[in-house]
Amino acid sequence: MSSRSSAPPLAILALMFNALVWGLSWWPFRQFQAGGLHPLWTTVVLYLISLAVISLRQRAAWLEFLRTPSLWLIMAAAGITNTAFNWAVAIGDVVRVVLLFYLMPLWAVLLARLILHERFGAAAALRMALALAGAAIVLAPAGGGFPLPASLADWLGVLGGFSFAFNNVMLRREAARGAGARALAMFGGGVLVAGAAASAMAAGGLIGWPALPGTLWLLPLTAMALLFLLSNLALQYGAGRLPANVTAVVMLTEVPAAALSAIWLGGGALDARTAAGGACILGAALLAALPSRARQGASAMSSSPSVYDFQALSITGQPADLASQRGKVLLIVNTASACGFTPQFAGLEQLWKDYAERGLVVLGFPSNEFGAQDPGSNDEIASFCQLNYGVSFPMMSKVKVNGADAHPLWKWLKGEKPGFLGTEAIKWNFTKFLVGRDGQVLKRYAPNEAPEKMRADIEAALQA
Asked: Which of 75, 229, 239, 339 is catalytic?
């Protein structure tokens, strides 16, 4: 079973760096705008450079991205988030924009209920009430009236926060995807959405086409693009090594960074009403970041572990916490690229396509233990699976499934559901385990059991 150590200082520093970059990003956006480059065009250039760097380093990630429609939704959400936020902080009061952006707890509760089917409890209701109260205070007109966004910047701040909450919920749902494919979706969204909006507005004469006073402006623009790329990498590094609640708290440092810099440099103001509303909004965000005591208590009282107690590495080497799959039905398989059962990849992919929307997740764990039939690197295995069988379900890094060095998850799986005559050892490639929505193992399948024969069991598990 995986153990969680105290928060690594480097991971916290990485998240603080990311938050600081975003908290101060309003200033360079305004400088480029003063130089003649609209914030939407600046967003396009920044993310286009980052997209090119990622594409050159992780070409195989494009295959996963193109074959995974759910990542297209992340692309749209990330694009709307960056387009709205970057535009808003360039034209509006930075303090108001950032506070309205951090209405995320309100949207996250609603979206998690809709997309992840998470229950709506008293704590969630409290977070929503606090966030709504804070928004009402910030948006209340000076002369009275219904609290609505009063400017384009306000509307963009609210829209950006909503799309960011949707982006985060979708990232939780697709946590086992490769980091490269997720990064392509996020940076690609910035290019696509901001580019489409800027082109439409420029064609209508609302803004100008891309222009800068001189070529020397390309130097700070390139430097800013690299800074944003490093910021994204820092976010992935920190978020992948810290519990979600710690990540959320550290990321809130973006708010004081933006507010203090804006007040100091004339990008915004903080009056008593905005401060009071902001306190409510930040309180809701902090409540969302705190772990549920009831959930902790239930976990402590439970004597039997579940699949959610384990961690693995994705095939790209990124941490993949199985707790992110809570409430899903899992089909866990040890795979190989040169085995007589290798064509089962096609059947597993079909199961994934047919049942993913209903809550099935197929997890492939390559292993080279049986006949040395998967000797390649993780990158080579990923490319083989995608090119030959169109695999889009999550693949993990290569593991051992037997012996003292077996991965803890596989030790647990074998112990929960022994094989023939009570033997626990995995006999060959493509042994499969079906795990229910409660995280407990339902059934074990022999290597020669074809994926399509599991449909009845999967249907039953999904309906449970």
From this structure: 339
pLDDT at 452: 93
Cα–Cα distance for residue pair 317/82, rounded to 1 Å: 27
Partners of 447 in beta bridges: none
How far is it, in rounded angstroms, from Cα 113 to Cα 108? 8
Which residue has 């609209």 as its token pair? 38
CB 344 within 8 A of CB 314: no
At 375-386, the pLDDT tens digits run 999 999 999 998
pLDDT 10s digits, 325-357: 888 999 999 999 999 999 999 999 999 999 998
User: Domain 307-463: which CATH class?
Assistant: alpha beta
Total-model pTM: 0.62
DSSP label at residue 59: T
Q: Which residues of 366-399 are buried (b: 16+ CB within 10 A; e: fewer)?
A: bbbbbeebbeeebeebbbbbbeebebbbbbbbbb
Residue 339 designated active-site:
yes
**Overall average pLDDT of the 123-140 stretch:** 84
Paired tokens of 258: 């933006």
- Domain(s) of CATH 3.40.30.10: residues in the chain: 307-463
Contact 62, 185 (CB under 8 A): no
Which H helix or E strand runs over 261? helix 254-265
Kindly report the number of other CB atoms within 10 A of residue 455's CB atom.
Answer: 13
